[in-house]
Amino acid sequence: MSESSNATGRTATKRLLTQNSDLRRIGVFNWTLPAFVIEMPDGSHFNVCPQAGVCAQLCYARVGTYRFKNVRAAHIRNLLLCRDNPEEFERQMTEELTHKRYVGKWIRVHDSGEFFSDEYLLTWLRIMRSSPGVRFYCYTKEISRFRRLVANDPPGNFLWCYSLGGKEDHLIDLSTERHADVFPNVEALIAADYTDQTESDLLSVLSESPLVGIPANRIPHLLKKQGQETFGSLQRARDEKLRAKKARAGQKFALAH
């Protein structure tokens, strides 16, 4: 939470946490970063989602309102704060979460963006432990990072759901570990025995079944690109192509030597 002066000269409070239309409906607040590779103000590029796979080409957070100039600027400000000044980010976020509006509420960490580094994830874990009256959840494709830093000793007020479509999908036990897959429609996810989370995004971490199905956003060109596949099936197909390519390269190397 920071302060700035408005046109009247009064000090206005800028909150770090916001609410998009879907999350506002269920009383959830969210923290947002840019998605995937972003151009920074100095002209450099930064990958906010290091483990993104096929999801990067089908991401709702790279189209529509997320591309509005003011929205992109706000998300980049968030990234600059937590990446370049993590101590100040931790201070501001921890302070903001003491406000009564957040008592008993859920915070979705990243409706866009990801835990891009160990330091950043550890910062969030400290924030969560410092805010026991608030509950937190997220989707993540950072499977190995979570297993190293979170899984063995998670904050008691934090739940997460692995998300398919990333480069570490193969690390997830799809039969037992909670995960989400994006389907072309509700009928497809029901047919695959996944739980539909359309009613509430919180079902991603609160549903009885660990198999969470998300109907794809109704964005025509992304729906066309996805076809009848899921993010998970598209990623498996990509992984198989990469394995076959590496195998052929290995065979050529062996024959040449």
UniProtKB/TrEMBL annotation:
Species name: Streptomyces liliifuscus
Cited Pfam families: GP88 (PF17338)
Keyword line: Plasmid
Source organism, top-level taxon: Bacteria
InterPro entries: Gp88
Protein name: Gene product 88 domain-containing protein
Domain annotation Gene product: ranges: 20-236
